[in-house]
């Protein structure tokens, strides 16, 4: 999750955690200060109290992007590729490098970011500085090249409407919210269908179905995009492996034959035949797993 400070990134983690534990929880620190409450890159796992089992997804929280502060563009690219470990503390003046301890040099699919969620406070869109929009659009360009999907969370929608007891089941009928969705869509070039208005749990004491429904709709869209990305990556990797296997297989056979031919000149034929089998199998195993 990426976005300006005080947008509600950490609060969304708390909201999802509250829904699945069936009570209000504030595990991730959220704040209203002028600087980001989150200083580190954090990966949050969730567990359902109804089943007692861990849920098969995680949400990753980052520090807020500011005009002069926040994650460096280098950090963000490494973040997308899965090079940054859980608990890494962002330092704009000193971005992470491959020489730093903890840097993940060969990230697998599970370390990579499967979907980026941009989070915005819907009530303060007009006050977001242009340099922040520029940073986010630069990141979007990198994401597009990597084929990483994106979703937008529009938070604090309760502060966007004039009604005191607003019915969140009619959120998509609200003019103020519609205008905010249109603005984010235009600024980032993202489809309005991928902009999800929500309200996080903040000062509530009990869970509410209307708040839960909006958050779960947003989560459902995120997980759908993430699942598609993972399937595409696996399919691409499988296709590449099949393409590489045939020529390498031929090379392995030729190399084995040459070695056996040379050995047969200086030693017993049976020994040479055994050696060729070992060489071919060894090379095939190497090709299969690299």
CATH superfamily of the largest domain: P-loop containing nucleotide triphosphate hydrolases
In whole angstroms, the N-to-C terminal distance is 32 Å
- The CATH first-level class of the largest domain comes to Alpha Beta
DSSP helix fraction: 40-55%
Structural class, from helix and strand content?
mainly alpha
Q: How many separate domains make up the residues?
A: 2
Strand fraction band?
5-15%
Would you give the CATH topology of the largest domain? Rossmann fold
The major sheet is characterized as: 3 strands, parallel
Radius of gyration: 25 Å
Q: What is the count of helical runs?
A: 6
* SSE pattern: HEEHEHEHEHH
Broad shape: elongated
Strand order of the largest sheet: 3-4-5
The counted number of beta strands is 5
Give the second-level CATH assignment, the architecture of the largest domain: 3-Layer(aba) Sandwich
SSE layout and pairings?
Blueprint: H1 9-21, E1 42-47, E2 54-61, H2 73-81, E3 116-121, H3 130-146, E4 150-155, H4 175-188, E5 195-197, H5 209-266, H6 269-288
Parallel strand pairs: 3-4, 4-5
Antiparallel strand pairs: 1-2
Model description:
The chain crosses the membrane at residues 247-265, 271-289. Keywords: Membrane, Transmembrane, Transmembrane helix. InterPro entries: P-loop_NTPase. The chain has 290 residues and is mainly α. It has 2 domains: 9-235, P-loop containing nucleotide triphosphate hydrolases (Rossmann fold), CATH 3.40.50.300; 241-288, no CATH class. It has 6 helices and 5 strands, in the order αββαβαβαβαα. A 3-stranded parallel sheet has the order 3-4-5, with helices on both faces. β3 (116-121), α3 and β4 (150-155) form a beta-alpha-beta unit. The longest helix is centred in the C-terminal third of the chain and has 58 residues, at 209-266. The model has no long low-confidence stretch (mean pLDDT 84).
